[in-house]
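Reader question, answered in our methods column.
A reader sent in the components of a multi-part assembly and asked whether the whole thing could be modeled at once rather than chain by chain. We filled in our standard form and ran it. Here is what they sent:
COMPLEX SIZE: three components
ENTRIES:
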Amino acid sequence: MDLSLDKFAKRLTLPPDLVLRWIREGKMPVYIKKGNICRFNKTVITKWAKQHNMLNSREKTNNIKDNQTEPQSLTTAMKTGNVLYNITGNNAETVLKEAVDKITTMPASLKPELYEKLMEREYIASTGVGKGVAIPHPRSPMLKTLKAPLITTCFLGKPIEFNAVDDKYVFILFILLSPTLPIHLQLLSELSFRLRDNNFITFLKSTPQPEKLFTELAEAEAKQDAANIF
Amino acid sequence: MRSKLLHIFRNTPLGRETLFQSIYFCKQLNILPVVYIPRFTKFLMYFENDVVQIDLDDSYLTSADTAIDRITAMMEQEEIQPSFIEPQNFTASTLPDLPTDFDFMCCPRSMSDLSSKIGLGHIGTKVRWIIKYAHFPILLTSPVFKKWKSITVFFGGSANALKALRLGFRLSKISKMPLDIFTQLEENSPEVYKQIIKDEDLEDSLNQNIRKWHFFESGKFENNLYHVPHDALVVLGAYGYGLIKEMLFGSKMEKIQATISNNLLIAGPKYFVSK
Amino acid sequence: MKILSSLQTPTKLNFFHSDDRMLLIFIGSIIGACSGTAAAALNHFLHIAFTFFYPIRHHWWAFIFPASGAFLSALFLGKIVKDGAGHGVPEVIYSVSRHGGLLRFRSSFSRLVSSFLTIGSGGSAGPEAPVVMSGAAIGSNIANFFSMNDRQRITLLACGSAGAISAIFNAPIAGMVFTIEVILGGWRSANIAPIAIAAVAGTEISRFLQGDQIAFPHQLFDIRFPDIMACIGLSIFTVVASVLFTKFLRTTGSLSKKIKTPLMVRAAIGGCAVGIIGYFFPVALGEGYHSVREMITSTFTCGLPILLLGLMAKMFATSLTLGFGGSGGIFAPCLVIGSLTGLIFYKTISVLFPSVIWVNEGYFALIGMAGLISGVMQAPLTGIFLIVEITGGYEVILPLILISTISSTLCNYIEPASFYLKDLKEKNLLLHPGTDAGILSVLTVHEVIEKDCTTVKQNMLLRDFIKIISKSRRNYFPVENEKNGKFTGIIHLDDIRSFIFNPSIYNVVVLEQITTTGIKTADPDDNLLDILKTMDKDGLFSMPVVTNGIFIGMVSKATILDQYRKELMVQTTEI
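And here is the structure of the entire assembly that came back:
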């Protein structure tokens, strides 16, 4: 079949100059016509590429692209995850158990696994990040069934001991579940950034309604985006 | 990256005119002139599929010791940093290889020091060879240094003429000089040529760049050449016909260069429009 | 017209562009026949010239023949075809190693004519190298006519050379082996078939034109153990002769360059000197096959001192012919010098060990030739097969192998490069595919440059820079001047790690203060080998590429290695 040099090189993910040189040197089973049109046999060239390890690099770059999905919005994730009120319990285990049970966006069959994973993470180190906030999350990117990341916000009935870094009692949990690691890290970093703001903590302590919470977050996010443009 | 022009220096008054022409060309188009000072009367250029030997006459070897100083002086006058190439490889001990990764090359019409030949005689065989095989356009200088203030493209509708037209558009854009197109109508109507331009998606660049498109319906081609502005750089494509065919039918390139003394920029058959 | 054009580009046809072996064999046989014809023609004309000059050689004024021959030869080469002097084999090797076997069309006949003038008139040189050059140029130009790519062109060039050598010696194996060993410098299974077919075609043409005759008469030798052992001694002699001969050739070459006369006059002076030497030692004249024949048949009767003088005379004559601008090769002179060396050795051991019965002079002459060929060209296989084929004597194969290998090994020990490769190696022009230099020389900076670096301005605050770092995937940040965009230096993350975590200085530090300046930069036209050398010397892992003060990208060892590996794979595997 015939392809222009540029397109042909793109298919092999090689620079056109290099492909042209290899064709001229006779290193590639391709004939080049006037006007840099490459004429080749598809099976022969696939065999050649396999033999010279040229196909792998192509697949790899595709994978990288898959990973670099669009940045996820914190607000959207929170909306997906829903907001829960009055979670009760005396310690981390009971609170988490109840929170997981109350999560609405997940089939019940997956819940035991999720709870186990969250607890597993808590044993390594507490997810209490200070200022009365904890962000429980599984250690490995969670649950292949998850399509979009979600953050379930849980306001506790009463503050509990959570082994947090600053030893303060925890009054709110953000259960963070994400399909891939990069998304997880990105959301975690954004969430922590929000929580650095003491006004926001005070706002959270007032146990706001979901709509109010989301508008507040969206505003903050918009501000941040504006500041990022430089 | 900046484009580069190869100049073969000849340390004679005629060579000085050629170098002035190169410098002017480079300055208008923001090109870096690279000068080769020959140390042997011949050199080789390895193109894609051909190797071309270029034989110079002895005038090219005149007083090589003063060459660098003279070139530097001329270039610095125009605030251009002189750069030279020294061949690294030799095919035989007296036969250096010159690299070919240039974007333009400058040649006198004939590589001979006799001014009678340099006049408007014919294009020398060596120069013809370079045009035939080079993948860059060749600047054929006028006999004496001549500034140009506009660009004229000869367009006859062929693939090579299209290449020349694209080149003309590019040059006009960089140099911000007006562009004229000349077409000798041979049986076809102007619409045919306009359709060719349309088919090649060149309409936009045409409208952006062009000052006037001259169509000549009657008259001999040579006589019509009077209308080419005397201070224009003439861009045209060459076909690379065999010698015999050229003797029988004559070549446009030969006719043009024999009639007008402008600087010519010739895109040979191997010239490849770079990205 | 359409059929014609598709004939001219057979590789375009679907059948051929994926597998061109049959095509190469077919075109190779045509090329073999063409170059074989050229070789046979030169041989024929040389023979005519020899019979013409032989009766008048003994006259004292005969020295003007070599002089005028050399003059005409230089005139033809220098003024008419404008080609360089010399035998041309290095040019072929250079073109194979650097330019995909591109040779000029004029080379396909220029050396034939000039070497005919030189040798036919009595100059001491061989017709083989010119024939190789012509054959190779014929192959290369035919390949171009069929628009072949570099790999195919090299194969066809090799076909031309094999056909030529096969034809001139009537020795197909020697033609193949010489081509593979000397011209290509390496075996490749894809090359063998076309080259073999071309050798057959060349030989067949030469047999058709000149009759099936081997260059030297076949002798039967009764070889015993002492004779084989004597080879080892003879190899010392051939090594000395080879090294001396190479030295002579090179010194006269550089000497003649110092004489400030036009090339033709210089050639004529050399020719005169050769003529005068030839007056006293006729063995030194021409290509010398006649004398070799006498030596093999043990009819060349001279005393030891005369032989020694004859050897010297031949070396001088050849050096004067070739070094002063005559045209021709060293193949035939090697054979003459080799057989003389053999004879000298025979006379010496006959005196030293009078009680041992040695086989005869012819045997030592044969072995000596092989020793010299493998010594001067450092091509043992060529020596072995050539002598076997041109003398038709398979029984001498054992001593031949012995002397060829010892002689070429010892010569390589003294002179690391053969006569053909010496100039090329000195100028660093020889590259073999698949070697380090071979790969690095084809890679260019353009192919390994990375352009995804974010350039930053000199006066930027560290605060703004931190934001850029968080978005960049690179560790290096080129810094440029605001005003003219010139590159001033580079910031490497490793160097500033200690203070980028200190927010209190974000607003007070300007990038200029943390830029590393004065680092080495590369130019896009630089040779990758030089860039790597600089990196190794300074312990760098990457270098900025800067042209005219403007930054265009980075080259790093990692990308070079990546590209290097690809290139290595492509160069070393067969399609």
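What stands out: Chain A touches chain B through two residues (CB under 8 Å). The longest strand of chain A covers residues 150-160.
Send us your own complexes using the same form.
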